[in-house]
User: Fold this.
Amino acid sequence: MSTSTIRLEDRLAKRGGAVELLRLPATAFGFAAGLRSRLYDRGWLPHEKLGVPVICVGNLTVGGTGKTPMVVWLARELLKRGRRPGLLSRGYGKAHEEKNDEAFEMERALPGVPHIQNPDRIAGGHALIEQGVDIIVMDDGFQHRRLVRDLDLVMVDATRPWGLPYLDEGGQAVCALIPRGFLRERPAALRRANAIILTRTDQSTEARFEALRRELESRAPGIPIVETVHSATGLRAIRGPALGLGELRGREVELFSGIGNPAAFEESVRALGAEVVEHRRFPDHHSYVVGDLIGLGEGRPVITTAKDISKCEALAPMDDLYVLEVELTVQSGVPLLEALLDSLSEGFAERQRHSIHAGLHG
Assistant:
């Protein structure tokens, strides 16, 4: 059983009625977003390059597509290559000098890797360079085109590719721009990507997944597709005895979350064999108050996400509280990603040499 206030995406996922009136402002939003993109394409809006390569991990939608695990995966790959990566994000919901939930999650996963949160990505990038990084991974920056990037990886969630959930097994999900839907840009913008990263592929049916692949190949022809899953790696005990993933099989648990895709979190727990008797779903980036969690954990383990725990650990009254730890696992496309990372460093060094040569002989 899932309990919560009705989330916005659940309202927007339904067709017909008053919600369709939002298509008018969505058309205006789409016109403005398309015009802005064309102005960048033609070089008529200012942009700036940094002195180090920039990898952007972004998406087309608002809400969760699994960007943070992808950022962690990339940073670890770069560290293996002897690079000094830095993380750059906007800092949703906080002033840029404060850490938000995603910052705490990245800090725990990547100790010692510099992370700057700043709505001004140019200033944030320069601050990272001053800290000695030699490559930047920008989180959620696909639409932030003022900062030039060397590699664009665009995340698409296989369970809700255009932001809104499917309402039935055979039907199509609503594909619409803000405010009628969750799209920031039209799907054709995927053609700007160097690769499309499909997430949570294991939570989609085979028929729906194959249909999505065909749709992506049609909307962004020639753009390679990488398939990934979010793998549960452990349960971190906040309070209560240690609990292994295998111990969840056949056990009743309760959940709470305030993330972009709570259904995917719940499915991850069910896949471990647990019986979810309650799931309190709050809006994405929810700010918890004491009353939100009253009544949970009366004789059952309570599980939440790494993003949520940083905001509510002191407020959670239950005795048995756990965080489901997950990592991104690349199912297909590892050689492609490795080649992109390797060519990025080699290509950037070559461009730097040409730039220095031109400066000396210009």
Summary: The mean pLDDT is 90. The CA atoms of residues 226 and 333 lie 5 Å apart.
